[in-house]
Amino acid sequence: QKEVEQNSGPLSVPEGAIASLNCTYSDRVSQSFFWYRQYSGKSPELIMSIYSNGDKEDGRFTAQLNKASQYVSLLIRDSQPSDSATYLCAAPERTGTASKLTFGTGTRLQVTL
Amino acid sequence: EAGVVQSPRYKIIEKKQPVAFWCNPISGHNTLYWYRQNLGQGPELLIRYENEEAVDDSQLPKDRFSAERLKGVDSTLKIQPAELGDSAVYLCASSPWGGPSIYSGNTIYFGEGSWLTVV
User: Across the A/B interface, how many CB contacts are shorter than 8 Å?
Assistant: First the structure.
């Protein structure tokens, strides 16, 4: 298994619906996660992070972590066309004195009118 | 505060030619990363620097890729000779000391990327 895995999509949801983006991970990564959003032709930007089991909410975004099942998800409520982007799940891997981020392949989200 | 600056933004070269990318990280960030992102894929780490020391270069194809970070600030990534499969976006990123961590609140910040097309 790759360290961090995502379904590449595209995931298509209508405007106003809830988009659910999922990520699974191996035992080799740190059990804390970052979600990045990447618009087409742009660089990734941080949305939110999570390290505790359960839910973490930030505006329309909710990150969920289930360590027993080794998955992390990102829910986007009231999806807007401006949410159309690729969402990358990333986990820190500590090597030496510092960490690097290992990314999944990303899930492309399309919010339709 | 200025973000991570990269140049050039776009480069088209013929195969077997050399190419170089330059990165200026966020001021004060000790850690610098070069990632490569292929179309439809997530970023993959090529090399990581702590100050001027390369501490993780296991994914760097050393037969044709080289990198340096003189004086622990700016960095350059070079490919010589380029191959068709090197077409990708080369992302430079930086973070404060220790790298990304939920506990410290640090994350990594990306530049806009250098888009390479090898023809």
Answer: 75
